Amino acid sequence: MDNYLSGITGEISFKAEKIKLLITDVDGVLTDGGIIYDDNGLEYKRFNVKDGFIVAQLRKNGILVGAITGRNSKVVENRCEELNFDFHYHGVRDKAQKLEEILEVLEIQIGEVAYIGDDLIDLPLIRKVGFSACPADALPYISSHVDFVSSLDGGQGVFREVADLILQSKGLLSGIIEKYLNQ
Protein backbone atom coordinates (compact mmCIF):
# COMPACT_ATOMS: atom_id res chain seq x y z
CA MET A 1 0.00 0.00 0.00
CA ASP A 2 2.98 2.32 0.28
CA ASN A 3 2.92 3.14 -3.46
CA TYR A 4 -0.85 3.34 -3.65
CA LEU A 5 -1.94 6.96 -3.36
CA SER A 6 1.67 8.05 -3.06
CA GLY A 7 2.32 11.66 -3.82
CA ILE A 8 -0.75 12.86 -1.95
CA THR A 9 0.16 16.27 -0.61
CA GLY A 10 -0.60 17.48 2.88
CA GLU A 11 -3.12 19.98 1.49
CA ILE A 12 -5.06 17.24 -0.32
CA SER A 13 -5.06 15.04 2.77
CA PHE A 14 -6.15 17.99 4.90
CA LYS A 15 -9.11 18.69 2.61
CA ALA A 16 -10.03 15.00 2.25
CA GLU A 17 -9.95 14.43 6.00
CA LYS A 18 -12.89 16.84 6.49
CA ILE A 19 -15.22 15.01 4.09
CA LYS A 20 -18.61 13.82 5.34
CA LEU A 21 -20.30 13.49 1.94
CA LEU A 22 -18.91 12.13 -1.34
CA ILE A 23 -20.95 12.99 -4.43
CA THR A 24 -20.17 11.74 -7.91
CA ASP A 25 -21.24 12.39 -11.44
CA VAL A 26 -21.96 9.17 -13.32
CA ASP A 27 -21.16 9.25 -17.05
CA GLY A 28 -17.42 9.65 -17.44
CA VAL A 29 -16.73 8.92 -13.75
CA LEU A 30 -18.54 5.73 -12.71
CA THR A 31 -18.62 4.75 -16.40
CA ASP A 32 -16.23 5.39 -19.27
CA GLY A 33 -18.79 7.80 -20.70
CA GLY A 34 -19.90 5.44 -23.44
CA ILE A 35 -23.56 4.66 -24.00
CA ILE A 36 -24.67 1.61 -25.93
CA TYR A 37 -28.19 1.33 -27.34
CA ASP A 38 -29.53 -1.89 -28.81
CA ASP A 39 -32.01 -2.12 -31.69
CA ASN A 40 -34.87 -1.92 -29.20
CA GLY A 41 -33.62 1.33 -27.67
CA LEU A 42 -32.37 -0.32 -24.48
CA GLU A 43 -29.44 1.44 -22.85
CA TYR A 44 -26.33 -0.33 -21.57
CA LYS A 45 -23.50 0.99 -19.40
CA ARG A 46 -20.51 -0.66 -17.83
CA PHE A 47 -19.63 0.05 -14.19
CA ASN A 48 -16.48 -0.91 -12.29
CA VAL A 49 -17.22 -3.30 -9.42
CA LYS A 50 -14.36 -1.85 -7.35
CA ASP A 51 -16.21 1.46 -7.22
CA GLY A 52 -19.28 -0.28 -5.88
CA PHE A 53 -17.52 -2.29 -3.21
CA ILE A 54 -16.15 0.74 -1.39
CA VAL A 55 -19.56 2.43 -0.99
CA ALA A 56 -20.47 0.18 1.94
CA GLN A 57 -17.14 0.96 3.62
CA LEU A 58 -17.68 4.71 3.26
CA ARG A 59 -21.16 4.46 4.74
CA LYS A 60 -19.99 2.20 7.62
CA ASN A 61 -17.51 4.93 8.47
CA GLY A 62 -20.04 7.74 8.51
CA ILE A 63 -19.45 9.15 5.04
CA LEU A 64 -22.60 9.70 3.00
CA VAL A 65 -22.57 8.84 -0.70
CA GLY A 66 -24.62 10.35 -3.50
CA ALA A 67 -24.84 10.94 -7.22
CA ILE A 68 -25.99 13.94 -9.22
CA THR A 69 -26.16 13.30 -12.93
CA GLY A 70 -27.35 15.34 -15.87
CA ARG A 71 -28.92 12.38 -17.66
CA ASN A 72 -31.99 10.34 -16.88
CA SER A 73 -31.13 6.66 -17.08
CA LYS A 74 -32.91 3.69 -15.56
CA VAL A 75 -29.60 1.78 -15.71
CA VAL A 76 -27.96 4.42 -13.50
CA GLU A 77 -30.93 4.53 -11.13
CA ASN A 78 -30.70 0.76 -10.74
CA ARG A 79 -26.95 0.90 -10.04
CA CYS A 80 -27.33 3.66 -7.42
CA GLU A 81 -30.11 1.69 -5.70
CA GLU A 82 -28.06 -1.52 -5.81
CA LEU A 83 -25.15 0.25 -4.10
CA ASN A 84 -27.42 1.84 -1.48
CA PHE A 85 -26.40 5.40 -2.27
CA ASP A 86 -27.84 7.76 0.32
CA PHE A 87 -29.34 9.77 -2.55
CA HIS A 88 -29.18 10.03 -6.32
CA TYR A 89 -30.65 12.69 -8.57
CA HIS A 90 -31.03 12.30 -12.33
CA GLY A 91 -31.67 14.77 -15.15
CA VAL A 92 -30.23 17.64 -13.10
CA ARG A 93 -29.18 20.64 -15.19
CA ASP A 94 -28.21 22.92 -12.30
CA LYS A 95 -26.05 20.74 -10.09
CA ALA A 96 -25.00 23.63 -7.84
CA GLN A 97 -28.61 24.42 -6.97
CA LYS A 98 -29.29 20.73 -6.26
CA LEU A 99 -26.24 20.60 -3.99
CA GLU A 100 -27.51 23.61 -2.01
CA GLU A 101 -30.84 21.82 -1.47
CA ILE A 102 -29.05 18.63 -0.35
CA LEU A 103 -26.78 20.47 2.10
CA GLU A 104 -29.71 22.28 3.66
CA VAL A 105 -31.50 18.99 4.33
CA LEU A 106 -28.40 17.12 5.54
CA GLU A 107 -27.02 20.06 7.52
CA ILE A 108 -23.55 19.57 6.05
CA GLN A 109 -21.18 22.43 5.22
CA ILE A 110 -19.84 22.86 1.68
CA GLY A 111 -16.28 22.30 2.97
CA GLU A 112 -17.30 18.81 4.10
CA VAL A 113 -18.33 17.75 0.59
CA ALA A 114 -16.21 15.99 -2.03
CA TYR A 115 -17.28 15.89 -5.67
CA ILE A 116 -16.00 13.88 -8.61
CA GLY A 117 -16.85 15.22 -12.05
CA ASP A 118 -15.48 15.24 -15.56
CA ASP A 119 -17.28 17.79 -17.73
CA LEU A 120 -18.48 21.39 -18.03
CA ILE A 121 -21.74 20.78 -16.17
CA ASP A 122 -19.62 19.71 -13.17
CA LEU A 123 -17.47 22.86 -12.95
CA PRO A 124 -19.78 24.82 -10.62
CA LEU A 125 -19.63 21.96 -8.08
CA ILE A 126 -15.93 21.34 -8.60
CA ARG A 127 -15.24 24.99 -7.78
CA LYS A 128 -17.57 25.07 -4.73
CA VAL A 129 -16.91 21.95 -2.69
CA GLY A 130 -14.26 21.33 -0.06
CA PHE A 131 -12.52 18.63 -2.11
CA SER A 132 -12.84 18.00 -5.85
CA ALA A 133 -11.52 15.31 -8.16
CA CYS A 134 -11.76 14.18 -11.76
CA PRO A 135 -10.69 11.17 -13.85
CA ALA A 136 -7.32 11.16 -15.60
CA ASP A 137 -9.06 11.50 -18.97
CA ALA A 138 -10.98 14.66 -18.08
CA LEU A 139 -10.24 17.55 -20.40
CA PRO A 140 -7.59 20.04 -19.24
CA TYR A 141 -10.13 22.79 -18.62
CA ILE A 142 -11.72 20.48 -16.05
CA SER A 143 -8.60 18.95 -14.50
CA SER A 144 -7.03 22.39 -14.01
CA HIS A 145 -9.79 23.23 -11.49
CA VAL A 146 -9.76 20.15 -9.24
CA ASP A 147 -7.80 19.34 -6.11
CA PHE A 148 -7.00 15.79 -7.25
CA VAL A 149 -6.68 14.19 -10.68
CA SER A 150 -7.14 10.44 -10.44
CA SER A 151 -4.52 8.20 -11.96
CA LEU A 152 -7.41 6.31 -13.60
CA ASP A 153 -9.71 7.08 -16.51
CA GLY A 154 -13.47 7.28 -16.12
CA GLY A 155 -15.07 3.88 -15.51
CA GLN A 156 -11.77 2.36 -14.40
CA GLY A 157 -12.07 2.85 -10.63
CA VAL A 158 -11.91 6.64 -10.20
CA PHE A 159 -14.58 6.62 -7.50
CA ARG A 160 -12.66 3.90 -5.63
CA GLU A 161 -9.40 5.81 -5.78
CA VAL A 162 -11.02 8.99 -4.43
CA ALA A 163 -12.91 7.05 -1.74
CA ASP A 164 -9.69 5.32 -0.69
CA LEU A 165 -7.93 8.69 -0.54
CA ILE A 166 -10.65 10.06 1.74
CA LEU A 167 -10.57 6.96 3.96
CA GLN A 168 -6.76 7.08 4.10
CA SER A 169 -6.78 10.78 5.00
CA LYS A 170 -9.15 10.01 7.87
CA GLY A 171 -6.86 7.19 9.06
CA LEU A 172 -9.48 4.53 8.25
CA LEU A 173 -8.22 2.72 5.15
CA SER A 174 -5.55 0.60 6.85
CA GLY A 175 -8.11 -0.66 9.40
CA ILE A 176 -10.49 -1.67 6.61
CA ILE A 177 -7.69 -3.52 4.84
CA GLU A 178 -6.62 -5.23 8.09
CA LYS A 179 -10.17 -6.42 8.68
CA TYR A 180 -10.13 -8.30 5.37
CA LEU A 181 -6.60 -9.61 5.91
CA ASN A 182 -7.69 -11.15 9.21
CA GLN A 183 -10.78 -12.96 7.96
Walkthrough of the structure:
With 183 residues, the protein is an alpha/beta fold. It has one domain: HAD superfamily/HAD-like (Rossmann fold, 3-Layer(aba) Sandwich). The chain has a six-stranded parallel sheet with strand order 5-4-1-6-7-8, with helices on both faces. Strands 2-3 form a two-stranded antiparallel sheet. Helix 1 crosses helix 7.
Quick structural gist:
The protein is α/β, with parallel strands linked by helices.
Short descriptors:
six-stranded parallel β-sheet; 183 residues; two-stranded antiparallel sheet; Rossmann fold
CATH fold assignment: Rossmann fold
Give the structural class.
alpha/beta
The figure for the number of domains is: 1
The helix count comes to 8
Low-confidence stretches: none
**CATH level-four homologous superfamily name:** HAD superfamily/HAD-like
- Reading the helices and strands in chain order gives HEEEHEHEHEHEHEHH
Rg over alpha carbons: 16 Å
The CATH top-level class label = Alpha Beta
Percentage of residues in strands: 5-15%
Overall body shape? globular
The count of DSSP E runs of length 2 or more, i.e. the number of strands, is 8
What is the straight-line distance between the termini? Answer: 19 Å
